[in-house]
Amino acid sequence: MSDTDTARNRLLELLKRDSVFHGDFTLASGAKSNLYVDCRITTMNPEAATLLGQLLYAHIRTALGPLKPTAVGGLTMGADPVAMAIGIASWKVDGPAGLKVFCVRKQAKDHGQGRRVEGNFQKGDHVVVVDDVITSGKSTLQAIEAIQAEGGIIDLVACLVDRESGGREKFTALGLPFISLFSKAEVFGS
Question: 148: exposed, middle or buried (C-beta count within 10 Å: 0-12, 13-18, 19+)?
Fold first, then answer.
């Protein structure tokens, strides 16, 4: 088994152990589900965050080939630890040429510069938009709209878990490539 396979298996083990819940839930998409994955428990675990950053950054580099984005971020709060983990992993691989990290507010703040995109982001940046879980894609689409409104260019959408409930199709319809580390079946079983 390769180091990548070992890391992926360990991350999936942590995700299933710590972040999967059974019951009656309303998802961010508004859909009802008897399964819920609270990825923040996993993405805010230092071991899991390290594995996530390494794996997703490698996956991003493979998916984009020679295209080199300059920044990574998404809608706060689910995307924040994912983006930071990827940013740290990119710095370990590429040093100062690694990805800058930013976050997207749900609403523009009413003070300061009144921006929705905060952190290390500039107009013209090529970005990877991330999230922890994608269901319908609604939250990620909000981030995409805010990033594009501030002059960002979306190269890729990436997530930890794809619940396979329409998000991928929405991104594809917009011409945006999409990747995920884990599928619904891997996390929840068949």
Answer: middle
